[in-house]
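Hey, I'm writing a tutorial for new members on how sequence and structure tokens pair up, and I'd like a real worked example in the thread rather than a made-up one. If someone can provide the structure for the chain below, I'll link this post from the tutorial.
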Amino acid sequence: MLDVSWRESLSVLKKIKAFSDDEALTAFIEIVNIKGIDDALNDIGNMEKKYYLEQHPYEIYYSEHDKRYRTYLPPKEDGEKRKPITAVTKENLENKIVAYYKQMEEKPPANTFEKIYPLFLDYKGKETSLANAHKLNWAWETYYKDDDIVKRELNDITVIMLKSWFLDKIAEHGLTSRKYKDMKSLMNMLYDFAIESNLASRNVSRMVHGISYKKFAVEHKKAPTEQVYINDEEENIIKVALSQYEKTGNTAYLGVCLNFTLALRVGEVVALKNSDFSETLVHIQRQEIKHYDKLDNGKIVRNGYEIVSHGKTPNADRELFLTRNAKGFLSMIMRANEERNFHSEYLLLDKDGERMHNDAINNVLRRLNRMIKTTQKGNHSIRKTCISNMGESGALSNEEIRTFAGHKDYSTTEKYYMHATTSIENRSEAYERAINSKINNVFKRVQNL
């Protein structure tokens, strides 16, 4: 009995005095040496009682009507009402109050995804960024929120149960394989968080395998005409962009032209500084991202943009060669800023001399697409077009192209960024040479028979 009281006393001292283990033990020994063990335990018990009563927000009062002491207990959950309690003596009422608060501290940990999700989201916002937490919350709101699976105790969820739930979601939302992986990744992370919080012992989500490809919706594969500027579209869009710049003075048009020579992500384009450029190279080392704030109610909301001193990946920090055309477009932008007496450290500026946001590039690009009457393509299509041109030229190695693109592996560059920039109809001579070079003479002899 004494051992239990001794350990409890140390816990009390750590709690109410914010002591470390060593500090609590030292303080306890000092009190025992002065007052003896029994009085020491009694004093520490009174200290704990005072600690809880000082936190109690409601008045303790005596009711002449029923000759009892009265107060309220705060609600345990949001939305609940405070609970009235009574006792014949004030001491008994105070003991009830203390017991209630101690019980609140000792309540069982969250054991459902619904309960741990707010903690998880807050942790992800700190571990990664509020922007990433915002993306995760979209998946929660879309697939998980208020679903029965998130209300079940973690230990009750089996592999078969979860796999069946995944299959239902695939059918309900018509998920492609890629979208399913996006949805499932949140469940994987929730389990990882639960394990690290000692609320689960295994990641059931990562044990779900073997879902047939036939269950997924067919992924729409974009044609090259939807992903890159083909045939003379690149030349036309640059001509129109230069014409629009002459009319409007909007250097966002020149930013579009410049990027056909650099293949940058749009956030990298608007984060360029004058100091990034040397005579032959440009150093890509930062990007613009969306800025998010966390409100008092826990909701994460978008609030403008910010520049961060890193790229999308570690490989995004790179130096790119400036071609003759790149230098020409760069010179036009710098001259425009100088003529307007703008002195910002950033390259692309709006009409007020403030740093341009990615919306400005995207807006003029949409306008240019309409003007040359092509499929609507974003800045990423410029990036893909430039990289595809580099591949088609045969003048650069795979490693040089990978580095220029800012990718970790060339396989990423090749799989997602290399496209034919000439339509099949305009490649007829090339197909003739490739396919018929060895049989042309044979076919001629057959025709002469």
